[in-house]
Amino acid sequence: MKILFFLVIFCVLAVGAGFAFSVINPDQQLSLIKSVSLGALQIFSIVIGVVSTALLLPKDMEDRTLYTILARPVPRFDYLAGKLLGVLLLIGGGLILMDLVLSLVIWARQGQVLDDSMRTLVMQGREDAETQQRVREIVARQGLTWNMHWAVFAIFLKAAVVTTLSLVLSCVASSTLFTIVVSFCVVIIGHGEALLREFFLHPHLGGMAERGAALALAIVFPDLALFDVVDGVVSGRIVSWGAVADMSGAAALYIAGYLAVAHLLFVEKEL
Predict the structure, then answer these.
(1) Of 82-96, 231-245, 247-261, the least confident
(2) What one-character DSSP code corresponds to residue 64?
(3) Measured between alpha carbons, how far is 184 from 145 in angstroms, rounded to an integer?
(4) Of 46, 12, 257, 8, which is closest to residue 154 (Cα–Cα)?
(5) What's residue 200's pLDDT?
(6) Which of 116, 141, 99 is nearest to 7 (CA)?
C-alpha cells in the first residue's frame, strides 16, 4: 500500500508538472501531459518490479517464511509462481489506479483546452467552421483515447517481463544489490538490443549463424523495444490490435521461458 500511495503521489506531481509548462499549442499541451505521466509510469513500474522481486527470496529466507512454506507439500514452482503473481498484481493494480487518475486529468484538461482554443480563434477572427473542426480533431486526437490505455498496458507487459527476469537473477544471486544492478543493466541493454544486433552481428555473421546469434541475444536479453508504444501514442499514432497481440504474445513467451528457468535454478538452489 505504501508503494501504491507513493505511485499516486508521483503521478499527481508528474501531471502537475505537465500543466506547469508554458505552451500555447493545444496539441502540445495534451501530448506533454501524456508524455510526462506515461514516462513516470514506465520508470516506476520497472523500479517497483525489480526492487520488489529482488527482495522476495532474501526477505523470506531472513524471516524463515520460505522454510515454513516449503516444509509443507508446496512445490517450489508454486512458490515462485505465487510470488511472481503477487508482484505482477501489485504493479497491475498500481497502473490501473494511475491510468484512472491520468484519464480523469486528460478528460478535464481536454475540455479546457478546447474552450481556450475556441476563444482564441474568436479573438483572432478565425472562427470559421473549417478551422474550428480542425482544432476539434487535433484536441480529440491528443485527448482521452483508447490508445492511452494500450500504452499503459504495454508498460505493464514490459514491467512483467523485467520482473520475471529479475526473479531468475534472484535465484542465483547472493545479494539483493547484485539482482537490482544486473536487472537495470539488462533493462538498458534490452532497450538497445536492436542496435546491438545491427552493429555487432550483421558485419561478422551471415545467414543461419546471424539468425541464431540474434535469437540467442533476444532470449538472454529481452527486446524491450517491442513494448515501446508510448512515443507513438503521445504523437497521436493509433495502436492496432495486431500490435497489441504481438506485444502480448512476446510478453507471454518471455514470462513463461524465464519462469521455467527460474524454477530450474530454484530447484537446485541450496536453502
Answers:
(1) 231-245
(2) T
(3) 31
(4) 46
(5) 60
(6) 99
Distance CA(241)–CA(165), nearest Å, equals: 26
Q: How far apart are CA 53 and CA 123, in angstroms?
A: 56
- Residue 26 CB contacts under 8 Å (≥ 6 apart), including other chains: 113, 114, 116, 117, 135, 138, 139, 142
What number of other Cβ atoms are within 10 A of residue 247's Cβ?
20
Other C-beta atoms closer than 10 Å to the C-beta of 246 total 13
Tens digits of residue pLDDT in 168-193: 988 888 788 888 888 888 888 888 77
The length of the chain, given as a count of residues: 271
Asked whether the beta carbons of 223 and 193 are under 8 A apart, the reply is yes
> Across residues 43-53, what is the average pLDDT?
87
Mean pLDDT for 68-89 is: 85
Q: What is the mean pLDDT of residues 123-152?
A: 80
Task: Tell me how far apart the terminal alpha carbons of the chain are, to the nearest angstrom.
Answer: 30
Interatomic CA distance for residues 156 and 198, integer angstroms: 27
Residue 25 CA to residue 54 CA, distance in Å, equals 44
d(CA 189, CA 55): 23
Q: Are 53 and 3 in contact (CB under 8 A)?
A: no
From the list 102, 135, 141, the residue with the least C-alpha distance to 119 is 135
Closest CA to 265 of 199, 181, 154, 173: 173
What is the pTM assigned to this prediction? 0.83
Residue 197 DSSP one-character state: I
* Cell numbers for 149: 490505455
**In the chain, which residue ranges form alpha helices assigned H by DSSP?**
2-20, 26-63, 65-71, 76-124, 129-142, 146-172, 176-191, 193-196, 207-220, 230-234, 241-268
